[in-house]
Write a structure and sequence with these properties.
Blueprint: H1 9-28, H2 47-51, H3 55-62, H4 65-72, H5 77-86, H6 95-101, E1 103-107, E2 110-115, H7 119-123, H8 130-133, H9 146-158, H10 167-173
Antiparallel strand pairs: 1-2
Helix pairs in contact: 1-3, 1-10
């Protein structure tokens, strides 16, 4: 989800919540009507790929409604009422719901929800950048030099990774 967080998950949660509230507000006022290019279902690797290294962030995410959306939303009375008014027979099968409330992965020309709102919903589809992001320049985290890390992060950014510090890009991707 976020870069190596030096503060605990409990301290990260308010920051994540504030960013997500901002995304919701911007979407509500029409700021992000369509998914940007950074969200390409054919390039989604899924939250488990991020959780391999970002364990604390993944645990914090699991405590949010964004994680619970996957299982809870299709069962909620309010969601069913909204879907009914929109003519959506199955919440997890209709693009109108999927585009905002789920992480969608496309394999074999078939789009399928794999999680609620997750890492790549904000940080961009990871297929082009995740190996660079987690590669430590072919070394280990402890032996990679600062210059190598800077170059690696810049390369990941050019391949589509959206960093937490890029608030405008994060909000636009929301």
């Amino acid at each position: 989800m976020v870069g190596r967080c030096s503060i605990g998950a409990q301290q990260c949660a308010p920051l994540v919540s504030a960013a997500l509230i901002l995304c919701g507000f911007l979407a509500a006022i029409g700021f992000a009507a369509d998914r940007p290019v950074a969200y390409d279902p054919t390039k989604i690797v899924g939250p488990n790929a991020c959780a391999e290294c970002h364990k604390k962030e993944a645990e914090a995410w699991k405590g949010t409604h964004h994680f619970r959306t996957f299982g809870e939303m299709p069962r909620r009375k309010e969601a069913k009422e909204i879907a009914g008014k929109m003519g959506v027979p199955r919440i997890r099968s209709e693009g109108l719901c999927l585009n905002c409330h789920y992480t969608i992965q496309e394999k074999d020309n078939r789009k399928q929800p794999i999680a609620g709102i997750s890492c790549e919903s904000c940080h961009g589809a990871g297929d082009d950048w995740i190996k660079v992001h987690s590669g430590f320049s072919g070394k280990t985290e402890k032996t990679e030099t600062k210059a190598e890390k800077t170059a690696r992060w810049k390369l990941a950014d050019t391949r589509g990774m959206i960093r937490p510090s890029a608030l405008y890009r994060l909000a636009k991707n929301c």
